[in-house]
Amino acid sequence: MIDDDQSLIRSSLVYLKQRVKRIKHTRCVFGPSTLRKCVVAVVIFSIILIIIYSRQTRTPYLAKFIKSNTRPEPNIRCGVEHGLRILQNHDHKTDARLKSDPKVLVFVETIFSKLGKDIAELLVHTRIKYKVEVTGKSLPVLTNLDKGRYGVIIFENYNKYLQMDNWNRELLDKYCREYSVGIIGFIPAEDETYVGSQLKGFPLFIHTNLKLKDATLNAASEILRLTRAGETAWGDLPGNDWTIFKANHSTYEPLEWAHRNDFFPINESGVKTPLPTVIQDHGLFDNIQRIIFGSGLKFWLHRLLFLDSLSYLSHGHLSLSLERSILVDVDDIFVGDIGTRLKPDDVEALINTQKRLSASVPGFKFNLGFSGKYFHHGNSEEDKGDDLILENVEKFMWFSHMWNHQQPHLYDNLSLLMDDMVLNKNFAKQHRIPIDSGYSISPHHSGVYPVHDLLYIAWKKVWKIRVTSTEEYPHLRPARLRRGFIHRNIMVLPRQTCGLFTHTMFIDKYPGGREKLDESIQGGELFQTIVYNPINIFMTHMSNYGNDRLGLYTFESVIKFVQCWTNIRLTSAPPLQLAENYFKLYPRESDPIWGNPCDDVRHQKIWSKNKSCDSLPKFLVIGPQKTGTTALSTFLSLHPSIASNVPSPTTFEEIQFFNAQNYLRGLDWYMSFFPSDTNSLTRYFFEKSATYFDGELVPRRVHALLPYAKLITILISPAKRAYSWYQHTKAHRDNVANNFSFHQVITASDAATKDLRDLRNRCLNPGKYAQHLERWMSYFPQASIHIIDGDQLKSNPIEVMNELQKFLKITPFLNYTEHLRFDKRKGFFCQVKEGSTKCLGRNKGRQYPPMEERSLKYLQRYYLSHNTALVKLFNKNGIRLIPKWLKEDLSDQNDTDS
């Protein structure tokens, strides 16, 4: 092409010379006709130059008028791409005997500060544990017995560290020295410019508010691990508020340099002086290692250096693996309007690019997803492209879409859904497409999440699917929160977007143009996605590989950039292998967290039409057991606007969804207990499961599905509750309860048999009320939690129910004096039915022999700290009415101690 352009220039120049000669030989040199001819010649020559420029720079100018090849080509130039990788210390492990947890403490100025949020988001993305503290007058607790709570300390504003009062500064520095903990600091932007200003207490000087360009790294630095040195990040660095450093001690070593973005800093030899923008403190000055950044995390290279700094300062305990897997799905093969599909030369380009990529990414193959119904639905050239794909079927990996590309959540009949899948399977067999990948993608991620169980059942029956992926769990945005889960033994992996969608076919139509796409590739979102995620499955579409072939451009470019700037080792593998690797890395993600589809417009669109948001419960009675929850549930059901769940055949009246294996059955199973065809007067569904109160995972699960639900808990004396539970299990002929006395159970040691320890724990643990309530309050505001005094519920339920109606804001207001009456025979209140009382079954409210005095004293001592914590929790949350039983328990213990 260059030769053609040069030939075009030469011929144009010849033409211009001829025109000039003709003009010279005319009698009227400056006549109108001659002038017009001269202008025409200049215009023609200008157009030729514009055409040549457009073809050389591949800009979209005159694209509508000029037919030329404007497809972008990968232009990443990397001098060290195939060179030696510098790894001073592969994993940063040292001989230091660490006594601190691999967790980060982040000090921020306010909870709204931008850099603080950037740091927290990066830590979330890379799954590094952290705690955020607003800098104040006191430090958080740094130790737990003889162990440090944090492995690295971060100050988003390093000045806050320098300006700490002596007491806190000495305390923090002592902690860092004793536990080998390093500090990362960021110099903030300042309105005032400092030149040669000394950092308080250190032989280090700064110059602030600079505009810089052309960043390079110190290839000899021991910090570099993930980051690869040897290149220069050419161009202006983001912002005009950079800080540079000048040291006056051997403890300091530059990690990154840049140059001023002007003509100022030239030394005597006429060469620009590199200026340190990130500096390492080796700890030679005061025995504390630090890494100080002269700017925040806007610059993409600082994000890499930040992760390397965490790894280095934590002695390798906060290191990310250097292994990354990448799989590129190409959805909608054969699906697309005429003019958007692949032609034979596009297919050949796909094969050739795959061959190049597999040389640098072992195992790389494009993964093609097909909907057979749309085969040969293009023009003649596009149909040839379909044929060429199938002629090369063995060169790719394959997965199934739906035959007609319809969303599975629209099917409410399993047979029809399976029939659609069978058609696609038969098409695959006919055209020799492999059918044993065990992987499938649902169109628009419908039915994967929010889960449509029919899809999972049909997938297993027709395709034996074991793996799928989605961008929607738990939500599309923010992408850093995407996670995997397993449902019905099908592994669901997080899927990533690369900035290309079905409509992204031409570079001049890309939002923001090529500059924006290149920004994502060269250090931006796409690059960082690969850096932060050990396993990447990317979504693209067939149309991205025809037309401007942006899919090929994007992945060839980003892979080159990753290999240029990082020591990451990229590989690829089939989806099943990636899924097994993923859940080995993150086994805790196996169990899903069901979110509420009603809170996400996208999720509502891909949620089964027969589901109703109104059928989800508005409030929960969460327990604990043996405090009167069944009686309360009965009283609530007397209200005409309130309905409980339908009974469960396995757990009687309780669903026990959020704290048991039932949770893994999914949202469809849970919602089946709240039928949408219930009495039209019902406005408030609720469920009661008394085991929810002390379930460790329950608050998070409840909040994910029912974030606006109200919670009701009943508290009685924990000693009384423990004894009641023991008697309950004994009445149900539990072997342990029948063979051991109550005192033996509650005093059993950890060396006892598992059955005995389990009964001991069920007796004692739910009574640690403050501990469990704090867990609930970490997810729900105190205003959403209503605490009932269990003794008052028993003695005066009418008043309790009136207060509860006010809390729930239930209408109409029910007069419980007409519906509850004290039953002398039973000794408690029962519902009034047809003029007489109807009480709970004989197993409710039974009388037990009195508790032994020694057991009561033991439990009062055991629960003293927990009851004291409960009083403090009440005071902290403005709950002024302390239950009578709580006052008595604390008073009795104080009397015993005196």
Automatic annotation (TrEMBL):
Residue ranges of domain Heparan sulphate-N-deacetylase deacetylase in the record: 323-527
Domain Heparan sulfate-N-deacetylase N-terminal, first and last residues per copy: 101-313
Query: Highest taxon of the source?
Result: Eukaryota
User: What subcellular locations does the record give?
Assistant: Golgi apparatus membrane
Task: Please tell me where 3'-phosphoadenylyl sulfate binds in this chain.
Answer: 724, 844-848
Question: EC number(s)?
Answer: 2.8.2.8
Q: Which GO terms describe its molecular function?
A: deacetylase activity; heparan sulfate N-sulfotransferase activity; hydrolase activity
What residue intervals traverse the membrane? 34-53
Q: List the disulfide bonds.
A: 830-839
Q: Tell me which InterPro entries the record gives.
A: Heparan_SO4_deacetylase_dom (IPR021930), HSNSD_N (IPR056793), NST/OST (IPR037359), P-loop_NTPase (IPR027417), Sulfotransferase_dom (IPR000863)
Annotated GO CC locations: Golgi membrane
Q: What is its main location?
A: Golgi
Question: Pathway it belongs to?
Answer: Glycan metabolism; heparan sulfate biosynthesis; Glycan metabolism; heparin biosynthesis
Its membrane topology is listed as: Single-pass type II membrane protein
Any idea which UniProt keywords this protein has?
Disulfide bond, Glycoprotein, Golgi apparatus, Hydrolase, Membrane, Multifunctional enzyme, Signal-anchor, Transferase, Transmembrane, Transmembrane helix
Q: Where is the Sulfotransferase domain?
A: 617-863
- A Pfam family: HSNSD_N
The entry's family comment says: Belongs to the sulfotransferase 1 family. NDST subfamily.
Q: What is this protein called?
A: [heparan sulfate]-glucosamine N-sulfotransferase
Q: Which organism is it from?
A: Dendroctonus ponderosae (Mountain pine beetle)
Q: What are the top taxonomic ranks of the organism?
A: Eukaryota, Metazoa, Ecdysozoa, Arthropoda, Hexapoda
